[in-house]
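Renewal narrative, Specific Aim 1. Our central claim is that a sequence can be written position by position from structural information alone. The example that follows is taken directly from our test logs and has not been curated for this report. It begins with the structure tokens describing the chain, in the order in which they were read.
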């Protein structure tokens, strides 16, 4: 999450009855941490699962549960509460509430707010798998989508009732991601983005190998930003301990050769390729099949190396390459090496990290190298920078309909 990525957004968070109410405590924390203001409205049933006091403490605002609440001076809670909302998010959304929404019913504060709204409505269903599969529920969901309501999830897996299947609510973090994604401008709608991220691992023997200090954070942040911008994202990752960004298709590889092969298999469909991975330039010619043991004479092992394929350059060399973007981390003279590397790799845009010390850190400062010159972007956390870079890339895209 980028610092304050939902700053200025006002959300009405509507809770209906269900055990998944416990997830909304965490969701509220995530939304407020991202800078959103959150007005919680609960149905009577929701208050059976978690108290308004808890939700008030977490949201920092009074919680409303009744249409007849005297705190709204004009007795128009159903209109006042959503007047300034950028969206209403119903989480958890029960079977009953989905049915009410599908039929435009307005018999309590939350349902009335939804019918009287002038803003987008997002629902996050949570129910037992049979309730989800019930033809009436499925019919209602089709109707909600047709009415322009966003249906987020549900997830699949073990349920509170002991059964396993579709219907459980998205986790709080996934719900947050879906909401943040909803608000991001869709500047890459309809585009397919292929990225590489993280280090590669080149084995010496079955237990040892050569790798580097790339954490994968920048590549994963870019994948998340591209997904939020409306792109279909395929992320090919070296060995990293990071969670897959929501809505992103991830493929794990180990070696540079595997990364190269995975990219080459998928690149024909891509509109944009971003090579963020710190790819090993060399690999050991013949990695030992067995663990290399110390000898009685203590002779040091020797290795001969061969060069790995240059993935970015191979992509740029294709007869119809996607818009290819490179990354470079240099230990000095970035201004000189950056442009030289861009020309050598034959890509329209190369993003230079200012200083190798950004490995593993949460923020970064970069320079964009392109034929027309170099532009420095201000230091920012990697997620905010990723959004800025996706916007820079989107602005530079050729009109592919004219080229392909
Ligand atoms: N790259 C790649 N395949 C390689 C090496 C690098 O795709 N075998 C890509 C990286 O993902 C990055 C860009 O090329 O987008 C620059 O990587 P870098 O390691 O800085 O470039 P090198 O060509 O390896 O240059 P150097 O001599 O500085 O190591």
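The sequence written for that structure reads:
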């Amino acid at each position: 999450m980028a610092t304050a990525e939902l700053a200025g957004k006002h959300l009405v968070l509507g809770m209906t009855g269900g055990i998944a109410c416990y997830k909304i405590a965490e969701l509220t924390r995530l939304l407020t941490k991202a800078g959103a203001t959150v007005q919680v409205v609960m149905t009577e049933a929701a208050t059976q699962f978690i108290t308004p006091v808890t939700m008030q403490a977490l949201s920092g605002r009074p919680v409303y549960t009744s249409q007849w609440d005297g705190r709204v001076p004009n007795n128009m809670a159903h209109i006042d509460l959503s007047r300034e909302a950028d969206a209403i998010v119903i989480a958890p959304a029960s079977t009953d509430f989905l049915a009410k929404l599908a039929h435009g019913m307005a018999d309590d504060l939350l349902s009335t707010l939804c019918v009287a709204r002038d803003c987008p409505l997002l629902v996050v269903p949570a129910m037992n798998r049979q309730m989800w599969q019930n033809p009436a529920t499925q019919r209602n969901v089709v109707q909600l989508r047709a009415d322009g309501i966003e249906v987020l999830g549900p997830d699949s897996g073990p349920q509170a009732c002991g059964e396993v299947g579709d219907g459980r609510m998205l986790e709080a973090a996934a719900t947050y991601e879906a909401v943040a994604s909803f608000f991001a401008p869709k500047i890459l709608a309809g585009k397919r983005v292929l990225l590489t991220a993280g280090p590669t691992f080149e084995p010496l023997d079955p237990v040892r190998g050569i790798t580097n200090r790339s954490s994968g954070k920048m590549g994963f942040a870019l994948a998340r930003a591209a997904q939020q911008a409306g792109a279909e994202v395929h992320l090919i990752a070296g060995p990293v301990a990071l969670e897959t960004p929501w809505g992103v298709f991830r493929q794990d590889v180990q070696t540079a050769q595997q990364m190269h092969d995975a990219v080459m298999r998928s690149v024909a469909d891509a509109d944009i390729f971003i090579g963020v991975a710190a790819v090993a330039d060399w690999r050991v010619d013949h990695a030992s099949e067995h663990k290399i043991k110390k000898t009685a004479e203590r002779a040091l092992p020797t290795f001969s190396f061969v060069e790995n394929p240059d993935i970015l350059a191979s992509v740029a060399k294709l007869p119809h390459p996607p818009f290819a973007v490179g990354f470079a981390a240099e230990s000095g003279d970035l201004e000189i090496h950056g442009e030289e590397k861009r020309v050598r790799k034959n890509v329209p845009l190369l993003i230079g990290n200012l200083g190798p010390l950004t490995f593993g850190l949460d923020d970064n400062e970069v320079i964009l190298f392109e034929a027309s010159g170099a532009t420095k972007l201000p230091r920012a956390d990697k997620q905010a920078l990723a959004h800025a870079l996706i916007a820079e890339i989107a602005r530079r895209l050729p009109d592919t309909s004219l080229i392909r």
